[in-house]
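> forwarded from #structure-qc
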């Protein structure tokens, strides 16, 4: 996906990420301790992962405005999936993976995903 232009979307969440990535690409964006050890993900690495997700969703046929269920554990990849979907224009519908299947089905149906 293409980067935001310097002032496009100024003040929106994506713009704040773009500015941080452009200014501090090698600084830590996310600290993940979900695997029992500390893993630091830089803005550049998170941005690359977000692009992979966005490109995958577009190549799978999702279009801007489509809704997508997102059920993941608390890991850094959640950020890549959530914001990668947004970058592609897809609306992520975060779900608690510990919910019962009927609750997850209700959430997806209610969100139109």
């Amino acid at each position: 996906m293409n980067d935001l232009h310097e002032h496009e979307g100024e003040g929106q969440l994506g713009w704040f990420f773009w500015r941080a990535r452009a200014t501090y690409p090698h600084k830590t964006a996310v600290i993940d301790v979900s695997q029992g050890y500390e893993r630091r993900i830089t803005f550049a690495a998170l941005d690359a992962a977000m692009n992979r997700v966005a490109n995958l969703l577009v190549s799978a046929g999702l279009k801007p405005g489509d809704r997508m269920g997102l059920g993941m554990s608390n890991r850094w990849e959640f950020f890549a999936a959530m914001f990668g979907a947004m970058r592609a224009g897809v609306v992520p519908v975060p779900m608690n993976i510990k919910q019962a299947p009927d609750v997850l089905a209700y959430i997806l149906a209610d969100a139109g995903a």
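QC bot note: Residues 9 and 26 are 23 Å apart (CA to CA). The radius of gyration is 15 Å.
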